[in-house]
Design a protein that fits this description.
Layout: H1 10-22, H2 26-33, H3 37-47, E1 49-50, H4 65-68, H5 84-90, E2 107-108, H6 111-124, H7 133-148, H8 153-159, H9 167-175, H10 190-194
Antiparallel strand pairs: 1-2
Amino acid sequence: MSFNGKHLSLEDRKIIEQNICKGLRKFETAKELNKSQSTIGKEIKNNRKCKYSLVDTPPWNCKFFKDCMVCTSKCAQFQEISCSRRDRFVGACNCCPNIKKCNLSKYFYYANVAQKNYEYTLKDAREGVNLNTTELYELAHIICPLIKQGQSIYTILQNHKEITQCEKTIYTYIEMGLFKDWGVTNLDLRRKVTRK
């Protein structure tokens, strides 16, 4: 089966939002739009908005909370409890029948917001950095302490699914000096130093 390789339009994104509200799975939306399931999955994951900010995520949403019990905010070991309906099947919490009694973080996908994000990315693509100041601060506060502990970018991204940038992009940001204010440069990257 050949998929339509064109970028998603606002109309496509509205269909994605409608199908999330209907409770349709990502593969059903992909079939309707003639896109791959991974395209739909990435679109939802990259553009859904969490009800809680990275700083305010309740500690009881960490899967290690029962063993730890001392969380006050996100730590290096934080791993959010997943929801199979939200993460595996539908992609977001829009119109979820259990939303009122659910204690997990809520993620919502809105077509208009996703379209604005897409247009912003297109506009700023030539400038090399697709982060506003808030996003840069949030990203730096997650990755910089972990890099200083010796963790690789790959490991950090595996443990922090809320980070939407890919490994290559993070390395590019570090090479551009975006994290110098947090004391992270190329010299802090074990892979970069040891590579011939």
